[in-house]
Write a structure and sequence with these properties.
Length: 108
Amino acid sequence: MNNTQQHTTTVRKALSIAAEAFAARSLVMRHDWYRFPWTLGPEIEPCLIGPAYLGNVVVGVTEAGMYTFESQPGVWEDVHPHYPDFLVDAVIEARAGKPFPLPRRGNR
């Protein structure tokens, strides 16, 4: 198994643990793929995408092994992987009831 496959397997295991922590709070997260700001070129990585009432939050795992999510547009917060419950609390506090603004249209 090469490093890329090993990293993807590790990320999927960490995301499964995080999904279980969200499910314990009755929050359904779906497994998907996402292009994070730190990924190079056309690469995409496994992620969790949350429900609409959490602003469709994207949860990923950095190369350092930390959980990460976008708390505000362009601001990514990291949470230690040994505490998935802290991740759930951080996502709920940062995202619940705070919809992101709609994208602005350019001057026409």
